[in-house]
Specification:
Elements (H helix, E strand, L loop, with lengths): L1 H37 L1 E14 L7 E3 L4 E8 H9 L4 E8 L4 E3 L6 E4 L5 H8 L4 E5 L4 E4 L4 E15 L3 E3 L4 E3 L2 E6 L1 H4 L5 E11 L3 E6 L7 E2 L3 E6 L1 E16 L8 E3 L2 E9 L12 E5 H6 L2 E2 L2 E4 L4 E7 L3 E4 L1
Length: 322
């Protein structure tokens, strides 16, 4: 009675050993597979190239009609992933110089590209996991449709505050100050300018410069995506001078009284380059034709000496009595 029980216990213990053995073998095989697939192998991978470029007057992005076959060294994982895909994977190669894209035929929108001419860009797009060894495809073809284009000015959007006793010596300058825009004719026909992204500077006490992107517009492509900006900024000196108001283009018989007869011009000059100015250096007038239409008019400076950065007239309006 005792022996059969012992025999069953022995068989049961042997079953556990078999399970452990099978599990160990599977684990070893899994680890071996991971190690092997992590190693690098030479193989062929397939990609359909999408390139961005800068061909004047044409769409800036297109996908190759043919597949690019690359002889590459990569991990087993990447090779298996590429082989399992029925369709070739898409590879985006950005910033291809238009000199590498050649017109195919005299007419039409087809261009061809020699992949070996942009080998480094292809390598950069693939990343460090895949090392390009050979490019088995010698030519790729792309369709770049024509697009309407026109040249428009660029206007800066700026939020700049200046430090105490500091101001701009010049306007905010852009280079280039105009760009070509491309897109459907119905879209770009209504665009007369483009804008930069906001240029932000706070409490500026010296000249500024930098690069700023253009604000994107739906359905519109720019010939450049960013522009250089600069502005000369420095300290200023502020002074005032009283100047008489005269009547411009008044006939000899005109008898007009201006109240007040003098206005104050508050002006700013560059620090270190300021000079003493007199009323004779300025001229302020109101137009006779304007006086005939209304009694209160805005005087304007018709003579301002060089070197004045900014000025304002006080009061802003004068009364004219015929």
């Amino acid at each position: 009675m005792v022996l059969p029980v012992k025999g069953k216990l022995k068989m049961f213990g042997g079953g556990r050993n078999w399970i452990i053995l099978v599990f160990s073998l599977l684990l070893a095989f899994f680890m071996w597979s991971i190690m092997k697939l992590s190693a690098n192998y030479s193989s062929y991978v397939r990609y359909r190239l999408t390139v961005t470029t800068d061909i004047p007057g044409r769409k800036n992005i297109a996908e190759s009609g043919d597949v690019l076959v690359i002889g590459a060294k990569s991990t087993g994982f990447r090779i298996i992933q590429n082989l399992q895909d029925k369709e070739a994977l898409t590879l985006l190669v950005e910033g291809v110089d238009h000199k590498h894209l050649h017109k195919y035929g005299q007419e039409g929108d087809m261009f061809y590209l020699i992949p070996d001419n942009i080998r480094q860009k292809i390598q950069d797009a693939l990343g460090a996991d895949i090392k390009v060894e050979t490019l088995a495809t010698d030519t790729l073809f792309f369709i770049f449709p024509e697009q309407g284009g026109r040249k428009v000015p660029v206007e800066p959007k700026s939020i700049i505050t200046y430090g105490k006793q500091h101001m701009p010596y010049s306007k905010l300058l852009l280079k280039p100050d105009s760009v070509f825009i491309y897109g459907d004719a119905g879209v770009i026909s209504g665009i007369d300018r483009v804008y930069t992204q906001a240029i932000r500077n706070k409490n500026v006490s010296g000249s500024i410069s930098g690069i700023v992107e253009l604000a994107p517009m739906d359905g519109v492509r720019f010939s450049v995506e960013e522009v250089f900006y600069s502005q000369e900024i420095g300290r200023y000196v502020e002074n005032t001078v009283k100047v008489p108001v005269t009547i411009g283009d008044a006939p000899s018989y005109a008898n007009v009284a201006v109240i007040p007869q003098e206005v104050t011009i508050r002006y700013r000059q560059q620090f270190g380059k300021s000079v003493s100015l007199s009323p004779q250096d300025f001229a302020v007038e109101v137009g006779y034709d304007e006086i005939m239409l209304k009694d209160v008019v805005k005087p304007r400076a018709v003579k301002v000496p060089e070197g004045i950065l900014e000025y304002e007239i006080e009061p802003k309006f004068v009364e004219c009595v015929l």
